[in-house]
Amino acid sequence: MNEFFSHLTSLTLEMAPWLVFGLLIAGLIKSWVPEERVIRWLGGQGMGPVIRGAIIGAPLPLCSCSVIPMAIGLRRKGASPSSTVSFLVSTPETGVDSIALTWSMLGPFMTIARPVGAILSAMVAGFLTLLVERHLPAGTIPAPTVVKPACDGGCGCSGKSAPAPEKKTLFARTRSGIDYALNDLWDDLALWLLAGILITAAVTTWIPSGFLTEYTQAGWLAMILIVLTSMPIYVCATASTPMAAAMLYSGISPGMTLAFLLAGPATNLAPLGIIRRELGGWVLTAYLSGIFLSAVGLGLLTDQVAGIMGWIPVIEPGKMEEWMPEWLAQGSAGLLIGLTLRTAWHRWRTPKR
Fold first, then answer.
1. H helices of 33-95, where?
2. Which of 254, 239, 258, 257 has the alpha carbon at shortest distance from 199?
3. What percent of the chain has pLDDT over 90?
4. What DSSP character marks residue 25?
5. According to the model, what pLDDT value does residue 328 have?
6. What is the DSSP string of 175-225?
7. Three-state DSSP state, 43
8. pLDDT tens digit string along 194-222?
9. Alpha helices in 94-157 (DSSP H)
């Protein structure tokens, strides 16, 4: 057990500064990028909105559950089905917080492959949806539901002008973003991230390095299996990172690891019913097909590129970069532990309904 706790401590210290950095940047992006601008970028028809939806969604810190309300809101305000699907895929697959953690735990190769793979897989799903839009009879895809706010005398229906939204100062938006990162975002991540770190520490302690290497020799069959296994499992992009590190350590290939990082966070059984209701069964099929095909294809391509480059993943959890100050690692870890204890306390005090 001493070795387990040693790995657990080292992992925590290694990832904490990068995770804090990623959380803060994620919070600032959310508070600084107005939703109205996102709606304008995703509006219109054709390939342009699909590409923009993939690129815009990539840095946002939302998981497959929390992205649903935002994506449906964008759809109801004018985003096309194809751009909505593209946004739905790229947003949970990666984010600035998970990218920062990927650099710390998986190295530069996977740090580049992950966001690139997320954007490409989102574009595949969006283009498939675009094909569905163009070849199905009119009315097959449900029209967006227009949600009208209840009239309170100030919405304009009584002859009065609706009050203009209050504009926040840069300082207020920055403070709001930091508050979101350290409260709402961390509350969503803490439990899953803790589980991922514990799994990684256990694997590196009790499973020999390269233990699963022989199971990756099945090529595309192994890739399909890991994608099909990952798709029903709910895991957010950040929490999946330490799990991916454990997979690489166990001998899983870089491509299979990338396939897990794409398919796991992007799919979740819970919101599929909402997607079908808002966008229709054909769009849901395009959404799932795009994730599956791109995860398998990009996983196989990643293994080929890694082989050509001669990149052999050697994951040594707990080996911190020499330039990382010890005080920064310990302070970041202390902050995250404090936030986790606060989250646990609030959940324990909140009465169950």
1. 35-42, 47-57, 67-76, 81-93
2. 239
3. 19
4. H
5. 87
6. HHHHHHIIIIIHHHHHHHHHHHHHHHHHHHHHS-TTTTGGGGGGTHHHHHH
7. strand
8. 887 888 788 777 776 655 666 666 678 88
9. 96-135
Residue 186 CB neighbour total at 10 angstroms? 23
Is 29 exposed, middle or buried (CB count within 10 Å of its CB: 0-12, 13-18, 19+)? middle
Residue 67 to residue 45: CA distance in whole angstroms:
22
Q: Which residues of 246-275 are buried (b: 16+ CB within 10 A; e: fewer)?
A: bbbbbbbbbbbbbbbbbbbbbbbeebeeeb
Tokens describing residue 81: 């089905």
pLDDT in tens, 332-345: 889 989 988 888 88
Phi-psi region of 280 (alpha: psi -120 to 50; beta: other; left: phi over 0): left
Q: 């330490």: which residue's tokens?
A: 242
pLDDT band for 246, please (50, 70, 90 cuts): confident
